[in-house]
Amino acid sequence: MADVLVVAEAAEGKLKKTTHSAVTFARQAAAALGGTYSILVIGSGVDAAATEAATLGAAKVLVAQDGSLGVYLAERYAPVVAEVAKARGIAVVVGTASGYGKDLLPRVAARLDAGYASDITGLVTEGSSLKYRRPMFAGNAFGLCSVATPIQVVSVRQSAFAAADASGAQSPVEQVAVARPGAAAERVEFVSFDQVKSTRPELAEAKVVVSGGRALKEKFNQVIDPLADVLGAAVGASRAACDAGYAPGDLQVGQTGKIVAPQLYVAVGISGAIQHLAGMKGSKVIVAINKDADAPIFQVADYGLVADLFTAVPELTKQIQASRG
Ligand code: FAD
């Protein structure tokens, strides 16, 4: 028997949707291994997150709750995950390749002396052996890899694993002891957390994304926001737009930004560099607006409009508004 441990992500006491993608992986991996999966919730005041995790079909929900875990610090969380994995003889530790997972899981792997398969987009099982599909070269190629260490650590790309539904059953919840922070944690001090508040859907989870590129210059918000508003969309941006200060860095879509796979992705004034495509080409329908008919973005677009964005986008916004009365 070989069991899987899902590292849950919680914010303000609630379970984040990213956890559901890791649970989908865990169901598949545990079935192949002939084992079970548990969900580990870490923090302080996370009872509601644990209760929600208990609806996801796990054999157990483990709760590591302590005042010292009230704010996320990798140096405090990584030893907790590693200790739980070791104590329970876990074969695979999995989380989602969100900012949280990308920060935490490599440290967990180092503590466990485990191989780490990051940002996987698929699981291939042969009997009880697990192989992981991973993008390479900015998503231009995919490789299959396996991990040879006794414990494996995996992060899954959220857009590649559908969110797990509630199972209908309630898993038992067990509190686990939290050891005092080690020397590494003692040297780290939490100073502050600046959260960007937005009424828009979260970029990585949105069904519709409207992204703008460098071409928008200082008119980024003036042109993109009204279109995003009428479509109920999240706003994204190219790296060039972020680097130039037209859009904040947390909106960047691409290889070194967020990976999105919405039902509809509208790329406005974006050339379609491979590093940008790496973050959005999994979108269901791609619409591109660019004045250059040869822009590479048109090679991946389902619908393309060759036009000046400064006239086309306000007109499109107006027409959508009018069609809705
Ligand atoms: P440009 O390439 O300058 O394109 C602007 C486009 O706007 C052009 O196609 C032009 O025809 C069009 N345009 C201009 N004026 C108008 C107008 N009036 N109306 C309509 N269209 C107009 N990029 C990312 O986006 N995300 C990443 O994560 C990322 N990671 C990177 C990682 C590495 C290691 C490297 C080297 C690069 C990375 N980049 C990334 C940068 C990437 O290579 C491109 O430079 C960037 O995506 C270009 O952004 P852009 O399309 O907004 O700008």
From TrEMBL:
It comes from the Bacteria. Binds 1 FAD per dimer. Residues 4-191 form the Electron transfer flavoprotein alpha/beta-subunit N-terminal domain. Its cofactor is FAD. Keywords: Electron transport, FAD, Flavoprotein, Transport. GO terms for molecular function: electron transfer activity; flavin adenine dinucleotide binding. SMART domains: ETF. FAD binds at residues 214, 238-239, 252-256, 269-276, 290. GO terms for biological process: fatty acid beta-oxidation using acyl-CoA dehydrogenase. CDD domains: ETF_alpha. Belongs to the ETF alpha-subunit/FixB family. The electron transfer flavoprotein serves as a specific electron acceptor for other dehydrogenases. It transfers the electrons to the main respiratory chain via ETF-ubiquinone oxidoreductase (ETF dehydrogenase). This is Electron transfer flavoprotein subunit alpha.
